[in-house]
Design brief:
nine-stranded mixed β-sheet, alpha/beta, 6 helices
């Protein structure tokens, strides 16, 4: 585990140079929550943590782990904050969590502080699988991994027109394609993606499809064409929740996909946006193109 963390830090070193604009932005206090997931959170959280730490002028990051009963392994080789944490100490909660319910008091605190605009929320990949019975959470995330009967789904047709499918129609959520795929910006002017190529290749990942939910106050930023569903699936979006901001990306299945420069750049910039609305992190020159992926720690490839 120490080796994994060391590698994650090494991959981040020398990457994502600070933007001059950062001197004008306050430091955001970020909390990553993990501890349970049907994905390898012990290998992915260190990659995100290292990326935030590289931007020390903009972020101060902690990790809290809600370890499942019976899991005797240490959460991480670094210090973590006891769970449940005090959310008043943070500006943004980044969820890398998919597991058992959180304590009601913590849920209520997140709900209240997000509605009041006192904390932002970032949802990464399988975090949108969680808490199907928590009504407020489903509103927060806009749409997630749910049964076809649960709620509506959103997709874009070949002309880029939004199509909303009613609950009970089409398939339930899945990942009917896994591999490299192209991310297409649908709102290239949004602060999180402004300046990025309109189309860029994301490294091998599970391409989530048929995301389901209330789909209220959702702003779609990017899509990806799934060879499995033959349609354009939501891939980056935001949700307005009261006065709070939610940034949601279903990318990030494993360490390989999280090392994608496109993923890390959108994560950092999306966390900034969710925290205070300011986006200052520079888009690195190594950012992927429409034809080639780009990952930290390795050369570009087709």
């Amino acid at each position: 585990m120490k080796k994994v963390f060391a590698l994650a830090v090494a991959w981040a070193l020398g990457f994502f140079a600070a933007s001059p604009a950062q001197v004008h932005a306050e430091k955001l206090r970020v909390l990553i929550v993990d501890g349970q997931n049907n994905h390898d959170w012990r290998s992915t959280t260190p990659i995100m943590k290292a990326a935030f730490e590289k931007q020390a002028d903009r972020f101060a990051v902690d990790v809290t782990s809600n370890i499942a009963k019976g899991d005797k392994k240490p959460a991480h080789p670094f210090d973590t904050v006891p769970f449940p944490p005090d959310l008043s100490k943070y500006d943004v909660l980044v969820s890398n969590y998919n597991g058992g319910s959180w304590p009601k008091e913590f849920n209520d605190a997140l709900d209240a502080r997000l509605k009041e605009g006192k904390v932002g929320l970032v949802i990464v990949h399988a975090a949108n699988n969680s808490f199907g019975g928590w009504k407020e959470y489903n509103q927060m995330i806009g749409m997630g991994w749910r049964d076809a009967k649960y709620g509506k789904r959103l997709k874009l047709d070949d002309e880029g027109k939004a199509v909303v499918v009613p609950a009970g129609e089409d398939q339930g959520s899945g990942h009917r394609y896994t591999g490299d795929f192209q991310v297409v910006l649908r709102d290239a002017a949004h602060p999180v993606v402004k300046g990025m190529p309109k189309e860029w290749m994301h490294a091998r990942d599970e391409l989530y499809d048929n995301m389901r939910g209330p789909i209220e106050n959702v702003h779609l930023i990017a899509t990806a064409y799934s060879k499995g569903t033959k349609t354009n699936e939501p891939m980056i979006w935001t949700v307005s929740y009261g006065k709070g901001k939610v940034f949601h990306t279903p990318m990030g299945h494993d360490a390989n996909s999280m090392r994608c420069v496109g993923f890390l750049t959108t994560l950092l910039r999306g966390t900034e946006w969710a925290g205070d609305g300011m986006v200052t992190i520079a888009i690195p020159p190594e950012f992927p193109t429409a034809e080639k992926t780009s990952s930290i720690g390795e050369a570009k490839k087709k």
